[in-house]
Amino acid sequence: MTIAAHSEDEELSRPSGLRKSFFEIHNLVAMFFLVAMRGMLQLQAPEAPVARELELTMLMLVAACGISCLPDFVSDESAANRGRVAAAHIYRALYIMVMVRSYMMLRDLLPLLRPDSLDAQLLAIDRAIFGITPAVWMDQFNQRPIIEWFSAFYFSYFLMVAFSLLWVLWAVKDLKLLRPYAIGGSIVFFLGQLTYVAVPGYGPVGYLADQFSAPLDGGFFWGLVSATVAQGGAMKDIFPSLHTALPTYFTLFAFYAAKTDPRFKIISRVLLFMTLNIIVSTMLLRWHYAIDVAAGLTLSFSAHAFGRWVAPREARFQAAHGLTSHWAPPSEWEGAELPEGHHA
């Protein structure tokens, strides 16, 4: 089992039977989001069906932590090892489900919590800085080849999120990468969604519909984007732009991971190219104001820096109390690394 400690010598001298820490920083961030949403809903619409969904998601998060910890209390070492392998898979799957459910609930939550919008204020900021919001300026590029190119990249956001989560959480066995990735990623995802409540808006596509010369001239990929947003979008989720924040965060992490894991060298460059195109697409396709993008960039860089700073401190705290992380890959996983050996 992967362990964390003050130094490599201290890590190597510690017994391998460390128990999982029930709640870690990334869990606390997720739970803070869920509790905050449920608390606000209690004041606005306590009987809304989405309240039960929030409570179920909280239970799912607690269950994930409990399942991850269970094998630590099995006395038979062989059975405990098998349990740790199963628990590692289950924990990762449940945490992703918590993330997915938290986003899907926003479509019901945001209108209840914030029936108003702050589009006028966001537009005013864009105009104060640029004189015009980029989405309106980009109306001159409303041509099918351009719209299709950027629609393909906008849609690739969903594939990038899925790839990043599955690749890092299952293929990366180094806890010194997994720990900051989970902390920073949870901050971007959950605190970003919480900010939607503070700054709701429909974006240029709704608020400035009369200022565009014509509907977007798209084809297959624009159709995919439109259908996906219509069916699953939260509709008032513009500030900050998570279409900016998450790809930027994944790119920052990939370049960071490439320093110690050569598999990320090519991945980081591909992600950078995709991220730049996705950021442009958020404004060209009329979803976001420039200030939304700036907020997304600020969130991603801040979360990445905080994750790298706090991860080794969390590791030292856990080691001092004989604990380890939910992300620690079982030694039975091929490629699992010992010891953790954090670096800042």
Count of domain modules: 1
Task: Assign an overall shape.
Answer: globular
Radius of gyration: 22 Å
The residue ranges in which pLDDT falls below 50 over 5 or more consecutive positions are 1-16
Largest sheet: 2 strands, parallel
Specify the structural class. mainly alpha
Order of helices and strands: HEHHHHHHHHHHHHHE
Strand content: under 5%
Overall helicity: 55-70%
End-to-end span in angstroms?
22 Å
* Number of E-state strands: 2
Mean pLDDT: 90
The total count of helices amounts to: 14
With strands numbered from the N-terminus, the spatial order across the biggest sheet is 1-2
Verbal overview:
This protein has 344 residues and is mainly alpha-helical. The protein has one domain. Helices cover 69% and strands 1% of the residues. It contains 14 helices and two strands; from the N terminus they run H-E-H-H-H-H-H-H-H-H-H-H-H-H-H-E. The chain has helices spanning 8-13, 25-44, 49-69, 77-104, 106-113, 119-130, 134-137, 144-171, 175-198, 204-207, 220-232, 242-257, 264-284, 290-320, and strands at 19-20, 323-324. Strands 1-2 form a two-stranded parallel ribbon. The longest helix is centred in the last third of the chain and has 31 residues, at 290-320. It starts with 7 loop residues before the first helix and ends in a 20-residue tail after the last strand. Mean pLDDT is 90; it is low at 1-16.
